[in-house]
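Support request from a user on the community tier.

User writes: "When I paste my structure tokens into the form, the page sometimes reloads and wipes my input. The last time it worked, I copied everything first. Here is what I submitted, just in case something in the input itself triggers the reload:"
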């Protein structure tokens, strides 16, 4: 029987990269996006089974996508990749931006994970949630975004402990990735500088490959690169000291942005 998978936010960026790699593995891929036309166009370009309009804030929409995927084969993998990334401090963001960050980045993952686990059935499957390095520690200038990604990491670990043995739930936490989301950040903003402070920006294809590599594994949280994850987690042990390091990282990121 054919195996199907779902990739949300699949019309571009990391989502498209994941969808392309899953198509190459022989999966019947249903990719979704808020922009339904873009989803359909990308599906045709990469040979996916279907491209659907999908608002991840709607729980019923996830269940409908699961039913669509089941028509193409046994649903075995679900990638919660859709996300938004407005940069700015808590005081600077509009109420609409705060609400969208929480509803898309957190509730979208929550509803998608629940729909996937329900749809997998007794044979189980894998849920891969695209989180972020920012979910491991303080990121001034991305406070709300980082909060949603920290919640995704926590959700992933807790749901993994709740689910049947044949269901595996993973979170991928990449450092800055060369996507439109990062390109849209304010060039002179603190968030942009911190995202660039790790040196080389990660490529879409390498992040997508790591997401796909989690399938079938028992790895719950994977951070790219691992050393940045260790540094971020250490910052949570002494948040007051981490504030002093922020200026150093920001300066390093601004130098990287100019090079």
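"...and here is what came back when it finally went through:"
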């Amino acid at each position: 029987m054919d195996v199907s998978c779902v990739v949300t936010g699949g019309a571009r960026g990391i989502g498209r990269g994941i969808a392309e790699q899953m198509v190459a593995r022989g999966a019947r891929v249903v990719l979704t996006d808020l922009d339904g036309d873009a989803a359909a166009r990308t599906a045709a370009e990469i040979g996916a089974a279907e491209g659907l309009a999908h608002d991840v804030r709607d729980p019923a929409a996830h269940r409908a996508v699961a039913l669509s995927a089941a028509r193409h084969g046994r649903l075995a993998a679900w990638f919660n990749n859709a996300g938004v990334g407005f940069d700015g401090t808590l005081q600077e963001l509009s109420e609409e931006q705060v609400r969208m960050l929480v509803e898309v980045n957190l509730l979208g993952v929550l509803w998608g994970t629940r729909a996937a686990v329900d749809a997998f059935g007794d044979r189980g499957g894998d849920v891969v949630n695209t989180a972020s390095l920012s979910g491991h520690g303080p990121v001034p200038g991305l406070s709300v975004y980082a909060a949603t990604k920290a919640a995704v990491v926590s959700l992933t670990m807790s749901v993994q402990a709740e689910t049947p043995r044949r269901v595996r739930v993973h979170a991928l936490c990449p450092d800055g990735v060369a996507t439109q989301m990062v390109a849209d950040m304010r060039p002179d903003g603190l968030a942009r500088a911190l995202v660039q402070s790790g040196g080389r920006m990660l490529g879409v294809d390498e992040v997508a490959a790591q997401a796909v590599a989690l399938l079938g594994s028992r790895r719950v949280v994977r951070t790219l690169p691992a050393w940045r994850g260790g540094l971020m987690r250490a910052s949570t042990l002494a948040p007051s000291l981490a504030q002093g390091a922020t200026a150093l990282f920001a300066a390093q990121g601004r130098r990287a942005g100019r090079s």
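Agent notes: The reload is a front-end session timeout and is unrelated to the input. The two ends are 51 Å apart (CA to CA). Residues 245-256 have pLDDT under 50 and may be disordered. Escalated to web team.
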